[in-house]
Specification:
Layout lengths: L2 H28 L4 H4 L5 H13 L4 H22 L8 H26 L11 H19 L22 H34 L3 H36 L4 H30 L6 H33 L7 H30 L1 H17 L5 H16 L13
Length: about 400
Amino acid sequence: MSPRTASIVAWSLFALFMAMVVATEALVVFGSGTADEGFVVLLAGYALAGALIAARRPGNAIGWLLLAVAVTFGFTTLVDAYVRSETAPGRVAAAWVSTWLWYFWLTLAAVFVPLLFPNGRPLSPRWRAVIWLGVAGLTLSTVGAGLSTDRLDVESPEDIRNPLAVNGWGEQVVDIVGTAGDAIATLAFTLAAISVVLRFRRSHGVERLQLKWFSYAGLITLLGLITAMLQVLFGADDRERDTGGWLEVVGSVGWFTTLFGIVVAIPLATGIAILRHRLYDIDVVIRRTLVYAALTGTLVASYLGGVLLLQLLLSPLTEDNGLAIAGSTLAAAALFRPARARIQELVDRRFFRQKYDASQTIAGFGARLRNEVELDALSGELRGVVAETMQPAHVSLWLRRPA
């Protein structure tokens, strides 16, 4: 495919996705759709990143995979909004397609994208077997969902039965096929995640920076999901104890972080990594994320602890907790600068050791500089510091003659 043809196809698929978004939003506003379907517009990041990558790097499969994820997800959401209307023609067939089509975008996003990132090829020829595992899992799961006797998995005023359901002895076979497909797809997803780890360990140079961007977005999504699961696992007990619903706040933060990671961070990081736009900024992004995440946790814990402590100390004098809140706020504000400096030092020492060692070397040189008056010794000291911190191939010092 020529670059011009690839560009036309890529932006045509992007336009197709946007057309489906407009149609879905129209059904939400004027028809039978709900606000849930309206969120399909958030997948525009996948369509845009996929179109840019496919147009500029047509030989890289990642761009086409992102476009396929966006288009299949957009079509699934459009169909879900369409079948809610009882008078829509062909709604049973549309509901049947929606029942199994979601396996496509999920497998593409969870298996094929991480497996082929960043160059569009698996880690080694042996890892091509994972591609076939993903295809097998997708095929079996699709067959199981498309021939199941269960009601079609769509929101509808009434239950819609599967028009192609297999009854009798074949029902058990279909259930086994669907279960086997889900198990194989889970195995393929696990192997794809392992391939990212192995590829990162073996990578260097530009590829390592690309994988840093992708891994950073993936970790944001994973941490958000783990945080959200706290509400799912312990939310009922929390409500029974009437502890103020703090897990609801944690769960909301977790779900928001997960949504941000899926719809913003992953396509943005993928586009930056493959198009090689500002790759070297990833270390700065990771460093600031670690620093401010730890700082936020420290300040929140200090604030809550200060409120509880001051309430206990002030309870004999007053029942108003305004003083406790004000005192804790002032304490957290005063703690911000020293805590930030200390946390940044700890992060640099643990995760960015080279930067930390360089800053320590420069600080030591500055301290010695105040006591050094010999020009030859000073120039040798300066060359040594530059060689240690910057590690150039050659160091020379040129001094201007005094006028």
